[in-house]
């Protein structure tokens, strides 16, 4: 099959969180199975990243922008003319579609609230080319710019979603959100995300040493974007309710990830007001080995989101053998509950109680560590890739009408 993945953000721009990691994982694994996979994305500053690319990635100019090829998967980064947060305007997308779209059997569009996916989808509809949309948790507006998002759905999102041959939900929670939003339930396909643990692990204690966190301290880890939707302030509130020491050990908290909208400054001010700033650490975004070192050095990982279609970071923590606490609003929660961690309401007191319980009960922590091994085995990429192969093949075989817009 000839597959085009369309995504606003793609590797090496891992600071955008889970989407570039997911798309990269699917693209590489489908290519390993013999499919011709290409990626179309926006350029967020490729030239500045060229020196950081590995030797297995070839970079060159193309008629449409920079082209990076990794393991036979070419990614085209369309020049960005304007940008607003994680939204870009890339006029070359129509030129690319006119010249290249006929070379593909199916298109997979990741994300919402951007201009790239709707532009490609509109041309797919006029040509009768099947496309799949994976909203990656963006369908239900949770924070920020509600009016703009309503306008987006009215003008762009509605046609994008209704014209899709299939809609990918990564958890039952997300599937219900899509159906409740009026989208055809028969089009919704449930396919979880996967996680790929490294073949070798970082040296134990390396993350703590880098950030001067005492080896004997209990470490609570938050890893991901400092975003209002993910509620790091709720975690900080819960942390401040704990005593300074639990079970004879000092308790520390690390926020590791990129700042979004100045939230880090507000968290720093909040930690000072709560008199816990000496035990709260703010670390730069961690990728690759540094990310896995953070997971491995933590005693507990917390994902306190208001809404999470899946929860990739919680899955990565579990793959690292670290027990987790997630809120009920995380799609991955049913898979983890009482197996690899605790699931709590989105409330500071409940989260504080769960933290205290997990940090003081060594038997429970050991049970969850064992459970992490079991759950991690269920979180591989093999099954999700199988699902995508089957779905793509079925949609390609179906006859599609050409729509005139």
Task: Provide tags for this entry.
18 strands; alpha/beta; seven-stranded mixed beta sheet; 2 domains; Rossmann fold; globular; 39% helix; 405 residues; 15 helices
Brief overview:
39% of the residues lie in helices and 21% in strands.
Protein model, in words:
With 405 residues, the chain is an alpha/beta fold. The protein has 2 domains: 2-194 and 382-397, Glycogen Phosphorylase B (Rossmann fold, 3-Layer(aba) Sandwich), CATH 3.40.50; 206-378, Rossmann fold. Helices cover 39% and strands 21% of the residues. The protein has helices spanning 18-32, 46-49, 92-100, 116-127, 146-162, 172-180, 206-210, 232-240, 263-273, 288-297, 312-319, 333-336, 348-360, 362-378, 382-397, and strands spanning 2-7, 36-42, 57-62, 65-70, 73-78, 82-84, 87-89, 106-110, 131-134, 166-169, 188-190, 218-223, 245-246, 249-256, 280-283, 300-303, 324-327, 341-344. The longest helix is centred in the middle third of the chain and has 17 residues, at 146-162. The chain is globular and about 65 Å long.
